[in-house]
Write a structure and sequence with these properties.
Number of strands: 6
Enzyme class: hydrolase
Largest sheet: 6 strands, parallel
Low-confidence stretches: 17-25, 394-411, 424-468
GO molecular function, one term: histone deacetylase activity, hydrolytic mechanism
Order of helices and strands: HHHEHEHEEHEHEHHH
Helix content: 25-40%
Strand content: 5-15%
Protein name: histone deacetylase
EC number: 3.5.1.98
Bound molecules: zinc ion
Catalytic activity: N(6)-acetyl-L-lysyl-[histone] + H2O = L-lysyl-[histone] + acetate
Distance between the termini: 114 Å
Length: about 475
């Protein structure tokens, strides 16, 4: 009887396994066969279950990754590519490094043509910008300077930088850009900042085909006034070259000289200047522009005829540094330009004086290692994009020097820095306190710098040449 039930149960199992047509001449042999099939079936289901679990896990991981990519806007305009991490590290490090050099007085002008990725937000990549090196550099400059001016001559609105400093009066942002059905869609003339930052964001919306003369008819009066009222301790100029004539994505009609005139003008104020790159999609003209502007920064007028070099053939048929602008229509009428200029000058007139800051704490400098690559052991370099496990990597030396730890021996840089800061301190000694500088972990000589409104910087009424 028991065998009969077993027979029936096994037959049903075999049916389920779709092999029940196997003839079973007797209960004994059928039991043996069924046990064999059962054990095979059991293994099969287990295998199937593990495949399903793995598939489910992979799907979850994929969904998590997609969610992360979407959350941080990585994808279409901001693709993931090999070497992305070191790309970001290099261009952002260059800008922060430039700011450190300026803070230490090692140079008057620092240049990082790889930087200027002005669209990146705190939590979001945008417009091929992953990390906003400009914001990082400005934060570095703010450790020493009360006020920093940001100027953006890329054809696109400098939205990421504006957003970062929209509510503070310690950074003024000025962006000259194409406005109206154009990426990123922000930068209306009415966007002026918020709260303490009201009137410290300036937007100059422009239309297609603007030429050198029209551009400078706005740039010089506006920037002259900004320098006069804001009195920045340092200037960051984003020199996006997509505002040049003939750019693949741009629609302005600036010559290289017209573009570089902005560099020349900002340089003339003799204020520490950080020059950054930015957009630019007709590559040979980007190279021409930043080459010429490097000359402007150095005070050298470069010859138009290009010397022989590795990439000479890219610059044919003329092989010259300058290219003539096109004959495209300038849609910026005199009246429109006049309206924009008077509106912005009116906003600037509402700023009575340059805001000042009480430095309660001075954040530590970001210290950039200056390793000699020739001397460095290539094997010990850390490749940020390699697949090496974290544990296998050599420890990275700390790049931030805590200034509240008593140094063993002060280098020349530290002494220069302290001298500089003491000068600042004595300048502002008897003044009233206003606003706090809020981050960092080190006290500056254990004291505070108190600042009087509008008393801290030299006037900029008369631009002077940096060499004079
Ligand atoms: Zn751009």
């Amino acid at each position: 009887m028991r065998d009969t039930y077993l027979h029936l149960a096994l037959s049903s199992l075999l049916n389920n396994l779709a092999i029940s047509r196997v003839a079973a001449p007797c209960a004994f042999s059928l039991t043996g066969l069924a046990l064999l099939v059962y054990s095979l079936g059991n293994g099969y289901w287990r295998k199937l279950l593990s495949i399903w679990c793995r598939w489910k896990e992979e799907k979850k991981t994929q969904q998590d990754q997609l969610r992360q990519l979407k959350r941080f806007n990585v994808g279409e305009d901001c693709p993931v590519f090999d070497g992305l991490y070191s790309f970001c590290q290099t261009y952002a490090g260059g800008s922060v490094g430039g700011a450190v050099k300026l803070n230490h007085g090692h140079c008057d002008i620092a240049v990082n043509w790889a930087g200027g990725l002005h669209h990146a937000k705190k939590c979001e990549a945008s417009g091929f910008c992953y990390v906003n090196d400009i914001v990082l550099a400005i934060l570095e400059l703010l450790k020493v300077h009360e006020r920093v001016l940001y100027v953006d001559i890329d054809i696109h609105h400098g939205d990421g930088v504006e957003e970062a400093f929209y509510t503070t009066d310690r950074v003024m942002t000025v962006s000259f850009h194409k406005f109206g059905d154009y990426f990123p869609g922000t930068g209306d003339v009415r966007d002026i900042g918020f709260g303490s930052g009201k009137y410290y964001s300036l937007n100059v919306p422009l239309d297609d085909g603007i030429d050198d003369e029209s551009y400078q008819s706005l740039f010089k009066p506006i920037m002259g006034k900004v320098m006069e009222v804001f009195k920045p301790g340092a200037v960051v100029l984003q020199c996006g070259a997509d505002s040049l004539s003939g750019d693949r994505l741009g629609c302005f009609n600036l010559s290289i000289k017209g573009h570089a005139e902005c560099v020349k003008y900002m340089r003339s104020f003799n204020v520490p200047l950080l020059l950054l790159g930015g957009g630019g999609y007709t590559i040979r003209n980007v190279a021409r522009c930043w080459c010429y502007e490097t000359g402007v920064a150095l005070g050298i007028e470069l010859e138009d005829k290009m010397p022989q070099h590795e990439y000479y053939e890219y610059f044919g048929p003329d092989y010259t540094l300058h290219v003539a602008p096109s004959n495209m229509e300038n849609k910026n009428s005199r009246q429109i330009l006049e309206d924009i200029r008077s509106k912005l000058l009116d906003n600037l007139s509402k700023l009575q004086h340059a805001p000042s800051v009480q430095f309660q704490e001075r954040p530590p400098d970001t210290e950039l290692p200056e390793a000699d690559e020739d001397q460095e052991d290539a094997d010990s370099r850390w490749d940020a994009d390699s697949d090496t496990n974290d544990e296998e990597r050599k420890p990275i030396p700390s790049r931030v020097r805590r200034e509240n730890v008593e140094p063993e021996g002060k280098g020349t840089d530290d002494m220069k820095m302290e001298e500089r800061l003491r000068e600042v301190e004595s300048t502002f000694a008897d003044s009233t306190s206003l606003k706090g500088c809020n981050s960092g972990s080190a006290l500056m000589d254990g004291g505070q710098i108190k600042v009087e409104q509008g008393s801290s910087n030299k006037p900029f009424d008369q631009p002077t040449d940096i060499n004079s």
